[in-house]
């Protein structure tokens, strides 16, 4: 969860932060902590507890930029897509990340077509409640 979500600030940078955590799990092949000191360090943008030697420098830099504590300092989804596209053939994790980013792009397109709230509501509403 992005730090700003605790302050009630929901926007695209929070999604970028969450995607950064998922990407970190995928490329570093780790299970992220649910809480505690290591979790707080990740939230603060500190990746020193993660072994990333096998990850390309471009991907490490991307993840670090996605996990910046300040929402306005994070990279955009467009930038994430650019890096992931270049990295896509290098590992299974990169290909998986590409699919996640494509999903976010589909949601963004739908938001533009329908109005911002509709797509977000569809994505965040459980299927069981949508059918009622």
UniProtKB/TrEMBL annotation:
GO molecular function: ATP binding; protein tyrosine kinase activity
One cellular-component annotation, GO: cytoplasm
InterPro entries listed in its UniProt record: CC_SR_Kinase, Kinase-like_dom_sf, Prot_kinase_dom
Keywords: ATP-binding, Kinase, Nucleotide-binding, Transferase
Highest taxon, organism lineage: Eukaryota
GO biological processes: negative regulation of G2/MI transition of meiotic cell cycle
Domain Protein kinase: 1-86
UniProt KW tRNA-binding keyword: no
Protein name, UniProt field: Protein kinase domain-containing protein
Organism annotation: Jimgerdemannia flammicorona
